[in-house]
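Per-residue structure
===
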Amino acid sequence: MLRTQELEGWSLLDEGKPNEALKAFRFETKLDPSRASAQEGAGVALAKLGRTEEALRAFREAARLDPFRAVVWGRMARSADDLGRRKEAVSYWERALRLAPDYFDTRDDERQRWERAIASDGPQAPALPEGVLVETLQRDTSIRNLSMGAGPTSSGSGFFVSPGVVLTNKHVVRGCSTLRVRADSGRTLRADVSIADPTVDLAVLNVDGKTPAIASFRAGEPPRSGEDVVAIGFPLSGLLADQVNVSTGTINALAGMYNDDRVLQMSAPVQPGSSGGPLFDASGNVVGVVVTKLNAKVVAEAMGDIPQNVNFALKASTARAFLDANRIPYTVAPSLAPRTHADIGDIGRSVTVLVECWK
């Protein structure tokens, strides 16, 4: 049900008064920050005012709050296309089509924009939803900071892919004014964001200081369902042991939610703070980047059953394509002889870092 301020906002849009409409939607979002339709309305008003970048942010927030509305993904696509970010636009339109296969049936002009973007920049996989069904694994440390002093606002994980270069998730470094990375040895280094791509949720950090070791991506055949994997990272930093955490599992499926083929599903347990950490195969080569997990509480409330260890990692092929596109060098190695989980843990310990963010 629309509330008074939100209803007024949509009415003001119909009357051609986007400034007044924006004020109404902003008021509503202050009253209820979780209201997706008010965030969407704010995005529409901002778009009409020519504030396209701000509009895109509002639509992203609306999609995060309610990831099942195809029209919101379409609005995101149009905004990204207006900003010249065609790959991003195509990925949003693809998500809209996954949610509503008839999306373009009454949107011929939008379909033509989609086709032009594909002709220009090629097809793209559907954008990853950031809605309530999945939890990004960024560790919020703000509550701990209130009692323990001025520490980082949040934290995640990352790993060295070349000298002075750390790969992590984009959401780990979103909105950070200061970044530091800390190796398992306890050594802390200053870092800066070099590249960030919200479409694939990956970011590259430039790190000052000596690189302890570099991870190798798996060469040759891609991983298969049923293979053993080892996830390395710094989950629940400040609560668990102040060292790299090693968890084991298997690859359950070679696609993520909504058949997203950029992602694989795995059973290795992950927690907030695991985001951006490497996922290794049985030979100690990287086959993925930990990114998210299914929100067990929400699924249990909706379906009456608690899902267990339904976690996701961006495939190494996705990460390598991102690094290739940005001309970031990295190492590959064949996966031949299997290693023990303890040996893989040692490899992960040498290349994985805690990423700390101050906002």
Remarks:
- The longest strand covers residues 188-197.
- The chain is about 35% helix and 25% strand.
